[in-house]
Amino acid sequence: MLPTKITVIGAGSASFGLNTLATLMSSRRLRGSRLALVDRNAETLKLIAGLAERLNREWDAQMTITTHTHHAEALEDTEFVVSAIEVPPREDLWRSDYEIPLKYGVRQPYAENGGPGGFAHAARNIGPVMEIVRDMERLCPDAWYINFTNPMIRICDAIARYSKIKVVGLCHQIQAGYGMVGYALADDLGLEVPEGVVSTHADSRTYPPLHKIARQAMERIDIKAAGLNHFTWMLDVRDKRTGEDLYPLFAKRWAALDPSFEPLTRQIYEITGVFPIPGDEHLCEYLPWVSDPTTKPWEKYDISLYDWDFASRQREDLHQAIARMARGEVGVAQLRDADSEGALEVIENIAGAGEHYHQAVNIPNQGLISNLPAGAIVEVPGLVSGAGVQGVSVGALPEPVAELCRRETTVAQLCVDAAVNGDRQAALQCLLFDPVITDIDTARQILDDYLITYREYLPQFW
Hints:
- With 462 residues, the chain is α/β, with parallel strands linked by helices.
- The chain is 45% helix and 15% strand.
- It contains 17 helices and twelve strands.
- The chain has helices at residues 16-26, 42-58, 90-102, 115-139, 152-162, 174-184, 186-189, 207-220, 247-256, 263-272, 280-283, 297-300, 308-326, 343-351, 399-421, 424-433, 440-453, and strands spanning 5-9, 34-38, 64-68, 80-83, 144-147, 166-169, 221-228, 231-239, 275-276, 355-364, 377-385, 388-391.
- A hairpin with a 2-residue loop joins strand 11 (377-385) and strand 12 (388-391).
- Helix 1 (16-26) packs parallel to helix 2 (42-58), helix 6 (174-184) crosses helix 8 (207-220) and helix 16 (424-433) packs across helix 17.
- It starts with a strand and ends in a 9-residue tail after the last helix.
């Protein structure tokens, strides 16, 4: 056993909190650990704590569980902080991030991680994140911060450049790549294609078919991808059984697919010669060709907006399901199959000096991608051991791809500088260098509107 202390911040999150809790408590290696559950929402915290007590008892996890409505109460002696915080109300703010630029003629493709919405989203979350890491520097300076909060590279960059805390960002988006590649190679690899629409659209109703293909594909093939979070590129794909390079076969099969399947990904692949991993609705946020109000490329590429109302309803449904499990009204066996998205593997292998290869970690670039800026947060394969998280060097990205990534790293770092320091000039530069913005006065109007509308969340700018 590897007893340690883990603090989960945002534990009341309907999906993140449930998956994290289930995977940590099902681990035999972490049996006997201390688990601190933190959430500002006392009601949802009580729900997840009730379920935690049930799992602790029925799964014999032997954990000491505490609950806290402020992170500082939980951090002392912590070795791992797992965080997926969001400033609430999430869907209402996201909708506002999208709608404010519309008033000035700017139609964002997605408004979560890139574009003006990426700035507003990151700026709101960076304040609470920096409060956490400042308290970590005081109470648990050697702990790891395992981040799930978006925008991933901006949150990780803030921690890496403005604190002494070790940070790794984890994201499951590489599974979209496995889903698309598996779909193209299904007949060659003997994979089952389930009924239903196969799509990378960021909609939980399309997840099951894609994920079923991805899970099968991950058993048969290995993808090496690198770049930035939600903006990674397939550098290599091989058959795990034979070692065969499958890129040429994939290119042939992909070309034969219905051209309406991931049309933006298809265009970018043709242009760059490198297959983008994230799928259309994350890829679109970082490209300068998806926001033109005249040609309306979002229609051509079938880029749909996030369904904020559905997501809000789904959160409520999940919280009700957690409550039923906590009360013992339904079984919990299905939670054994939950996916930690890497948090469990990172904790087990750092705490226990193990050795784990993880396909996507977000860490500072220290020679990992040779033609991206040093220190920028990049997403690469990684090795997790008692020595921490070390990225796997992939060399240089193809230059057109690298140039797209360099622009996004600059935008991300300007956003972080602005949010940490309350720097309006850096904020304006962030918007102007983003591919969505094409006019200086429009950028000023959007920035002013954001800062006024979100004044309570962004006091550092006033």
